[in-house]
Amino acid sequence: MVTILNYINGKLVGPNSGNYLENVNPAIGKVFSQLPDSDEKDVQLAVDAAQAAYNDWSAMAVEKRQAILLKIADLIDRDLTELALAESEDQGKPVKLAIAVDIPRASANIRFFATGIQHFASEAHITGNEAVNYTTRTPIGIAGCISPWNLPLYLFTWKIAPALAAGCTVVAKPSELTPLTAYLFSKLCIEAGLPKGVLNIVHGLGPKVGQAIVEHPQIPAISFTGGTVTGKRIAATAAPMFKKLSLELGGKNPNIIFADCNWEQALSTSVLSSFSNQGEICLCGSRIFVERPVYDRFVSEFTNRVKSLTVGDPLDEKVKIGAVNSEAHMNKVLSYIILAQEEGGKIECGGERITVEGRCANGYFIAPTVITGLPYDCRTNQEEIFGPVVTIMPFDTEEEVLQYANSTTYGLSATLWTENLTRTHRVAAQLKSGIVWVNCWLFRDLRTPFGGMKQSGVGREGGWEAMRFFTETKNVCIKL
Ligand code: NAD
Predict the structure, then answer these.
(1) Whole-number pLDDT of residue 325
(2) 273 and 226 within one domain
(3) Which atom from ligand 1 is nearest to the alpha carbon of 250?
(4) 206 within ligand 1 shell (Cβ under 6 A)
(5) Residue 458's pLDDT is what?
(6) Residue 430 CB coordination number (10 Å)
(7) ipTM over cut 0.95
(8) Is residue 437 within 8 Å of 413, Cβ to Cβ?
(9) Which of 86, 207, 218, 314 is the most interior residue, by most CB within 10 Å?
(10) CATH number at residue 318
(11) Are residues 205 and 273 in the same domain?
């Protein structure tokens, strides 16, 4: 059994408490590793190390900082298969998906920000012939980075890469449900020669380790991705301390299909946007709205394709849908399927736990589920389920679908399928979402701002938005 360790001050160490938590492989329903049950004392050691490393790292020539980060990215690529297997074992996702998406994206995140720092320039403003203003953006200090379980290494690197590139030192906490790849990553940091204390990874529970990071007075910026309820708690702690906050939270994203869409693209991409990673991607479109003339056809063809998705052992190359992340999460998703039926929904396909033959017999599998017949404002259509469950609803007019789409407390992303250019702009402008995909989904350019409106978050990640988050701005005005 693997024993995961903290990465503090350049060393792999056990927790101060000496206690470990069990880590379950969701596809087989068994404990396969253990992780440190760390507490505020471990966080303090991490902060001390980050503080000691700060002056050298923040003052290091960007070329040198970049070279170390690029070396880490190369090592991720070298270990692609090992990391993908670990991600699949820990999270439940098909290993094929981890090989194609999660791990390559982790190295891409690091390369993107490592090279970006070379181009991160200050602005100057010439005020006639009276003054010159210049603006500096210097590293903010020790950054606290807290990430969730759905895309473990992908989202972990999405936070720490801009922080490290900007010159911050970091105290990070991956999800206690998926700590393995962050642990393997810490070994790669050591191999790449990342100076001790620059990145510190403290494993353990959110209310212990996460809370200690958020409360720590020496950590001025918190970058958090996770649930909206946790985000509220973090904001309540951090706001009176005047910390800088970046919160990437939940979603209940609409997928809007007009009758004039490119049918095949809309259909095939909607299957992906509904069920990729078992529907456990914050950008998944969980509410599908279809224009009435093509509604029946869409329900029938979509359901047929969903029925053909293979659910099963994540190590099997043919499998499209792996295990959901935990037993508790499986029960939560199943409880929403029961609720949907109580609210009058019709299960078009799926709707139940699946038992997989062989080594995965005790795993947490749910058949991809399509539900129709629900009103847009019922709980099933308003609350985040975050699993392999979608609803489909008909609409008649643009006004109506905009009302439905914008009706939730969330506003992360929306997808729009139409070949009508003016409608594209009209609808995109009125959607209350931080991200709108038109005739595509998850077509990522890392330079674009990423994040949500309303209760989907505060602030944006990606590109210069992230670099600005991890830096403090100062304007110097010189009278001529
Ligand atoms: P979660 O909020 O339960 O946990 C996220 C992280 O926060 C974990 O590391 C956890 O240990 C930590 N945490 C828990 N309590 C804490 C506290 N009091 N203080 C500090 N940290 C604490 O979320 P999850 O279940 O791991 O992830 C699923 C959620 O994440 C979904 O709601 C999903 O929509 C959201 N998500 C959002 C995005 C985005 O970019 N907007 C991306 C991925 C996932």
Answers:
(1) 98
(2) no
(3) 34
(4) yes
(5) 97
(6) 13
(7) yes
(8) yes
(9) 314
(10) 3.40.309.10
(11) no
In a domain, 450, yes or no: no
Query: Is 102 close to ligand 1, i.e. is its CB under 6 Å away?
Result: no
Residue owning the nearest CA to atom 15 of ligand 1? 206
Please check whether residues 227 and 285 belong to one and the same domain. Answer: no
CATH of the domain at 234: 3.40.605.10
Please give the residue range of the domain that contains residue 205: 2-249+456-479
Q: Phi, psi at residue 83, to the nearest 5°?
A: -65, -40
How wide is the angle at C-alpha 387 spanned by C-alphas 254 and 232, nearest 5°? 75
Q: Which of 145, 177, 282 to mutate to test the pocket of ligand 1 (most atoms within 8 A of CB)?
A: 282
Strand partners, 132: 126, 478
**pLDDT tens for residues 418-455?**
999 999 999 999 999 999 999 999 999 999 999 999 99
User: Is the beta carbon of 413 within 6 A of some atom in ligand 1?
Assistant: no
DSSP states of 304-332: HHHHTS-BS-TTSTT-SB---S-HHHHHH
Query: Is residue 348 helix, strand or coil?
Result: strand
pLDDT reported for residue 121: 86
* Among candidate residues 224, 123, 139, the one with its CA nearest the CA of residue 457: 224
Residue whose entry in the numeric block shows the structure tokens 């958090």? 224
